[in-house]
Amino acid sequence: MYEYAVGLKWVELLKQIAPQVTRIAVLYDPEQPAAAGYVAAIEAAARSFSVRVVLGAVRDAAAIERTIQAFAGEPNGGLILPPTAFTVAHRALIISLAVRYRLSNIFAHRYNVVDGGLASYGVDNIDLYRRAAEYVDRILKGEKPGDLPIQFATKFELVINLKTARALGLEIPIPVLARTDEVIE
Question: Looking at the structure, do residues 136 and 53 belong to the same domain, yes or no?
Fold first, then answer.
């Protein structure tokens, strides 16, 4: 199950970290089933922040490069990268281009920030794995899977890379740092 509403938090966080952002490029593979849900949530959120969304439907590395280069031709841009297999597979390229073109960027998972992305906000995967293990334990002890309640993610984490922020010429606001779960130097 996907938590599309997190798109609102990505837009909000991007505006808090880089208030000058007036345009957001959303890179996604249109073949990925989850992409449409994230795109819709981001577009809806962008309206309330007076930000224009530029959709970048990309299917390969060359398209990523063309799309980011063209987007970077105008000022005040930022990137949001929904959590799909495509963005995971191409994260090194996306991160290097974001830094080269000085584009603030938000990902869904911590490992993107460890690899040089600016920020991530998303589900704490370790918490999900722990909770899944609890379900397995309950099933092994005899509970019927159909009797177990559906659970949604309840723990989200915010990670900021200060080295990347400096490279992008950004100063992370104190209120954002105060609620950050992990700061990478």
Answer: no
Measured between alpha carbons, how far is 142 from 159 in angstroms, rounded to an integer? Answer: 39
Residue 155 has a pLDDT of: 82
Looking at residue 151, its pLDDT comes to 78
Residues 58 and 119 in one domain: yes
Do 85 and 142 lie in a common domain? Answer: no
* Residue ranges in the chain whose pLDDT is less than 50: 1
Entry pTM: 0.88
Exposure of 25 by Cβ count < 10 A (0-12 exposed, 13-18 middle, 19+ buried)? buried
Residues 42 and 80 in one domain: yes
Residue 36, helix vs strand vs coil: helix
What's the token pair of residue 84?
Answer: 């799909």
Q: Residue 99 in contact with residue 116, Cβ under 8 Å? A: yes
Instruction: Quote the DSSP letter at residue 150.
Output: P
Tell me the residue type at 84.
T
Q: Looking at the domain assignment, is residue 1 inside a domain?
A: no
| Residue 133 belongs to domain spanning | 124-154
In a domain, 82, yes or no: yes
pLDDT at 3: 82
Query: In terms of DSSP bridges, do strands 23-28 and 52-57 run parallel, antiparallel, or are they unpaired?
Result: parallel
